[in-house]
Amino acid sequence: xxxxxxxxxxxxxxxxxxxxxxxxxxxxxxxxxxxxxxxxxxxxxxxxxxxxxxxxxxxxxxxxxxxxxxxxxxxxxxxxxxxxxxxxxxxxxxxxxxxxxxxxxxxxxxxxxxxxxxxxxxxxxxxxxxxxxxxxxxxxxxxxxxxxxxxxxxxxxxxxxxxxxxxxxxxxxxxxxxxxxxxxxxxxxxxxxxxxxxxxxxxxxxxxxxxxxxxxxxxxxxxxxxxxxxxxxxxxxxxxxxxxxxxxxxxxxxxxxxxxxxxxxxxxxxxxxxxxxxxxxxxxxxxxxxxxxxxxxxxxxxxxxxxxxxxxxxxxxxxxxxxxxxxxxxxxxxxxxxxxxxxxxxxxxxxxxxxxxxxxxxxxxxxxxxxxxxxxxxxxxxxxxxxxxxxxxxxxxxxxxxxxxxxxxxxxxxxxxxxxxxxxxxxxxxxxxxxxxxxxxxxxxxxxxxxxxxxxxxxxxxxxxxxxxxxxxxxxxxxxxxxxxxxxxxxxxxxxxxxxxxxxxxxxxxxxxxxxxxxxxxxxxxxxxxxxxxxxxxxxxxxxxxxxxx
Length: 550
What we know:
By secondary structure, this protein is of the alpha+beta class. Helices cover 47% and strands 12% of the residues. The radius of gyration is 26 Å and the shape is globular. The mean pLDDT is 95.
């Protein structure tokens, strides 16, 4: 039976016995590149959603050896597929380039064909910085190319390995990150069997395998009840375990040519491994201290089913609102998107009990053709999220009536574009979306700028003057603190000093504020959120003051 026919039967989601027979038949048949990739993705689907223990064991075995199926001809046709044994080309940012070089070793290098096709030479101006003094004269050569110089300087190593090593040695991390990213260096990578790939990147098989049936996908979910259920957040994993889990995150995203700032700068010392129902594991992490946001807590997540990554995303947590962006991988669409989103809201609320959940308009189609074409707005609408603008709510109400009145009605692209002009928001306590106002992060940021300008030149004593003013406002001496905590106490001090009402705060309020500010620079940013939630009125006052100064 042809592979196409077998795949078509498999997509009808037959019973466990027939599913295993079809998978075995697909393993034995001859494939084109297209059907081989489809077979690969069905193995991944049934690894995440096994209909029997036997199906899961078969998928594990096939995927472990899948790279052996990649002939030279198939490899050419499967470039960018993320499958083990194939090629991947991508201009990763600094953090992800370092990850891929470490994971792939000699199988990751610069794509010189892309490099030499550029209008300008991105490394020429900094070449003298990257080489030793004895090599510097070569930089002025009129006959040697940058490629020749770097390849000879690299010796037995790849040029990528040498470059990343030199960037790490010469520049502070954030400078190296900026310079490397500006160079936009395309990498040429071979996804080796032991490295990251869509084929193999996963957690080990869970002890208690969750068995799926197609009927599970049809079960109705009471979204409001689901997000209200308490969720116990475990203690952060050890740093070693956190790094192992972060490697799963990086391995999941890089091979899909996806980059996410929150993942690239995730903190292995603050990784939460949350076990959910239905075979779910939710990895939640916050940012490394040097990459943290001033007012929000940037967070990321990876959702796994039976150890298989199925979706990722993140956003920003703030006492005023929880921003959640969900991305479900194509292979696993059509199953449990509502349950996944509900689980994310539950987890986010456990960290930060804000009154609103918001999804940005990009998620529903603004400058996002894929989301627009799929009618993504209606996924959020069914869960109770509504546009933040009166015009958007009017269009949504009109379209909802048409859907109820006309069987088979689908919103035209013109209506979907109007709906995507605004973010969508959910009041977690059932409140009407009309009063929602976006928290003015920018204006509150300018409030800090105005206050900081009062402390004179930003010289070596700038922060000392700032911290002294914070002590005077609090009415007690600051305790001994690590440098990162002291830094953020000063930064948040700009806001403390911007509000006259903080002069009359109780000792308890002052202690909570100090714990909050220290949490921003502490080991766990979740401590910042915990204490910020106790000072929601303070953030409201900052917003009002910031808008007043506008």
